[in-house]
Amino acid sequence: MQNTGIAKIDNPYLGHPVFHLVNRVAESCGVRAFVIGGFVRDCFLGRIDPEKYDKTAYDIDIVVEGSGIDFAHEVAARIEKETGRPCTVASYRNFGTAMLHYHGTEIEFVGARKESYNRNSRKPIVENGSLEDDQKRRDFTINAMAFGLNKEDFGALVDPFGGIADLSAGVIRTPLEPDVTFSDDPLRMLRAVRFVSKLSTPDHPFTISPDCFQSICRMKDRMSILSAERIAEELNKILLTPKPSVGLRLLDQTGLLEYVLPALARLKGIETVDGRGHKDNFSHTVQVVDHVAQATAEEMSQDKVLWLRWAALLHDIGKPSSKRWDPSLGWTFHGHEVIGARMVPGIFQALKMPLNEKMKYVQKLVGLHHRPIALVDEEVTDSAIRRLLFDAGDDINDLMLLCGADITSKNPVKVAGIKSNFELVKRKLVEVEEKDAIRNWKNPITGEYIMELFGIGPCSIIGTLKEAVKEAVLDGVIGNDFAQADSFMREKARQMGLEPIKKA
What we know:
Layout: H1 17-29, E1 33-36, H2 38-44, E2 59-64, H3 68-83, E3 90-92, E4 97-102, E5 105-111, E6 113-117, E7 124-128, H4 131-136, E8 146-148, E9 157-158, H5 163-169, E10 171-172, H6 178-184, H7 187-199, E11 207-208, H8 210-219, H9 228-239, H10 244-254, H11 257-260, H12 262-265, E12 272-273, E13 276-277, H13 281-295, H14 302-314, H15 319-322, E14 324-326, E15 330-332, H16 336-350, H17 357-368, H18 370-376, H19 382-392, H20 396-405, H21 412-436, H22 447-454, H23 460-475, H24 482-495
């Protein structure tokens, strides 16, 4: 086995108390222990700050040559002895792993192992092994590096596959022959894309090595053995990277997009008639996702960030079904937002993603995303603004963020003009909201009130009167208050032949 890099005890990255604790337990148990994987990789990428261990929670993976579960319990016992506080261990015997929390950090323990696979499953046959065996089963060289934690090699880097060189070159490469690696566990193909998207920066971009890229293109059919849940999990992680378009374009280039999100793949391509073509809707979509990623408010929760990016990803998903050629207008996509909104539940269901309020939020933004842009090309009336506020409710700010991100063109003058008009729509939203308080508006005229007033039971007349009041408020015919709504409703009822049975 090749040892490279740091070979001294004062490795500055190993200042976290857990590493010295593991060192003591490993010594007493007579086993070899190492920190491995993402933590080691991120040390060399400058993503680990030794000065902030007490303020930042890192995921730390410890591998031991022996039972990871037994070792975790030994560590927990030592923590309890030294602190006087209980330390709970969560064990997962099916996977041979255990997890505990220490100094605000999640620590996972696993025994070194070697794996073999059945072709029809990505679940491995696991046997006990050495550190070298364990490093061979890792997905990529940059995730196979380890720091020794025993007394004699504390802080020494174990890098048998040249992970340091690959980090420096910005290359995602498998430790073993890529066809074997990706055939054994095809999820690694998606992980390769995700790590390129996650780790790339403007100053240090990452790529998939040519042999691994070609292997993914060859092995893409192996995606068929993956569960929808695992595919969705990786896709979500790609969407949460700083520049999601990096991963989304790689999914397309490798052919994985057809397996991950075929509806998105259908956005690709430009059709031309009489020399007039439409824009490539796939390229436009990934650009919009990047714009949303750049514009997302810092205070927005990561969960909300994810679903807003999903709305950006799916905002034009209905365009292939709505595309039409009109000799006088050129290419049109009328109603694509309505078609797209109808497609959202099916896409979520296929990926086994939640069909609750998260899906409804995405569906809502997809269905409404064309409304504010349409107002840019029209006279911005109070009525149109009220209706937009009423339909968007508390999601109006997210909708406007998405719509602002949707302004793309190769013509900078055109973009500047649309953005200027879009600012007018935003100002008008604020003015109308302050004046009419229409967001999340509730009809002051209830069905119960109408039945009591006119002495009628449940019937279609009630819905007709309530709808008339709503339209009158949104059109500005009456103010947003009970007295005007009541007076308007009574007049409408009189025209329908209804009179109150008592004075109110």
